[in-house]
Amino acid sequence: MTLAVKQVREIALENPASSRVFEQYGIDYCCGGHRPLADACQEKGIAVSAVLEAIENLSSAEPAATEVWATRSLAELVEHIVWKHHNYIRKEFPRLQQLAEKVVARHGNTRSELAQIQNDLEALGEELLQHIQKEELVLFPYISKLESAYRSGGSRPYGCFGSILQPIDVMLREHDSAGRLSARIRELSVDFNPPEGACPTYHAYYSGLREFIEDLHRHIHLENNILFPRAIEMERGEA
Ligand SMILES: [Fe+2]
Ligand SMILES: [Fe+2]
Fold this sequence. Notes:
Elements: H1 8-14, H2 18-25, H3 37-44, H4 48-56, H5 65-71, H6 74-107, H7 113-152, H8 165-188, H9 200-235
Helix pairs in contact: 6-7, 6-9, 7-8, 8-9
């Protein structure tokens, strides 16, 4: 199968370094990654050959984080997600809020998109803080218990929901919402490019937004494409 007709999420799973190329071109490889690369490129008005070439040129020595997590225990993956991605949201969101305040106060009268970006950032951050709390309090502890029971041949742990499909479905819908808000921020900020002559705070704000959203994509990719499918298989006794 040529790469162009493969689903974007499959390419990102098989070649984790390709996520850098997808970020660069603004191609969604997590929530919206269930479609062929050629279609995703067409929608963005990008030549698929340019994306394929960029993927081919990636160093094979890139650390393959996703490959590593495809084989490690789910308990380790959960710990990694909380330590690396959830803590990052808790630390970075307040800093971005402060930068947004400053930039809107200084430039909001001439740049109307700044207030919209601030509103979207506020909605995104608030949604994410509640979302990661639900994962940490309910879903992730259940996944770790499920894995222990599966490995020891014990019975399925008690959960306040019927099947793990239920909380996962809620999390997936929340990821989609975060994906929509992120895409709008990216669009409103013209791919995080400040206008000509923008002040250093403006640059710091846009580059912070870019990093925040790129980290969110890596985070959601680990959950949607590795953690959740493996937990579902485990619940079915198929892992
Ligand atoms: Fe998460
Ligand atoms: Fe999540």
